[in-house]
Design brief:
Blueprint lengths: L12 E2 L2 E2 L4 H13 L2 E4 L3 H12 L5 E3 L3 H10 L4 E5 L7 H10 L8 E5 L4 H9 L4 E4 L4 H20 L1
Helix pairs in contact: 1-6, 3-4
Length: 162
């Protein structure tokens, strides 16, 4: 579907480049994620470790959770700054997780990044309609992934200081 942009796919780009907040901003996000970690939910442990590695190198605190129902439980019971989920998961896919989070007033505000190897037009439209924040495709570019996560954390920091 050429020419149609989806929330998150184009909103993180600035003049064709991904924005990457500087070191000062990164330290602010490090503080933020210490009290409200980033949840990474992928049923492939290697992918989860890769995502954790990318974000931890930026000083961010992560929490790997393979069970999608556990993602919802954690988000309802503690502060979470960002959820990063794979689309294709057993029992409950990433869009179902997003739907569940957006349905609860306590979790509706949490930024949500969906990472997938493939996404149909229907998946993309459902992601947009549910209020997903960033859609990324595998194989991921390490720089783009890290920058997208920082951009989403920036929204959280702005909301907390407003």
């Amino acid at each position: 579907m050429e020419g149609r942009s989806f929330r998150g796919e184009s909103s993180l780009r600035v003049a064709g480049q991904w924005s990457d907040p500087g070191t000062t901003a990164t330290s602010v996000y490090s503080e933020l994620t210490r009290s409200a970690p980033i949840i990474i939910s992928d049923n492939d442990p290697q992918i989860s470790r890769l995502f954790e590695h990318i974000l931890r190198r930026r000083g961010l605190t992560t929490l790997a959770v393979s069970d999608p129902t556990e993602v919802t439980r954690l988000c309802l019971n503690r502060s979470i700054s960002l959820v990063i989920s794979d689309l294709m998961k057993p029992r409950m896919n990433g869009l179902d997780v997003l739907h569940t989070l957006r349905s609860h007033r306590l979790t509706a505000h949490i930024p949500f990044m969906l990472v997938t190897a493939t996404a149909s037009i229907e998946h993309r439209e459902r992601f947009q309609n549910l209020g997903g924040d960033c859609l990324m495709f595998k194989p991921i570019d390490v720089q783009q992934f890290g920058s997208a996560a920082l951009s989403l954390l920036e929204r959280v920091a702005v909301r907390l200081t407003a």
